[in-house]
Structure formats: C-alpha cells, structure tokens
Amino acid sequence: MQLVLYDLRKNKKKMTQEQMATYLGITPKTYRSKELGTSEFTLDEMFAIAKMFNMKVDDIFVPRQYQFGTERK
Fold this sequence. Notes:
about 60% helix
C-alpha cells in the first residue's frame, strides 16, 4: 500500500479516492488498486501527484517490493 500517498490524500488534501481518480483521469477502481499496491502508478500519474502535493516523487511513492515493510523476494 502507498501509505504516504494515502495519508497525504486523506489528511492534507481531504480528497476521496474518487476525486484523485478524476484528477488523474482514471476510474476509481483503478485508482484504488494502485493506492493499495496491486497495480502500479504510471510515471505520468506519479509526477502529477507529486506536483499536486508540491513534493518529490520519491518522497511519496515506495517501490512495490518495499510497500509492505520488507523487500519481497
């Protein structure tokens, strides 16, 4: 799960998953799967989100193999 993104979306911007999906031009279902880590965000989506929060991409997104606290093998 993209925990930093989840926290920023809910607590900094007070946005729903549906609002984030609309911002990115994707369906809410697709956004949910990306936030949960079952699908990957595209580079364009990551840069758009980073710009929205005025942050660096790597300050928001964790590589998928580290999303659950340890590297998956």
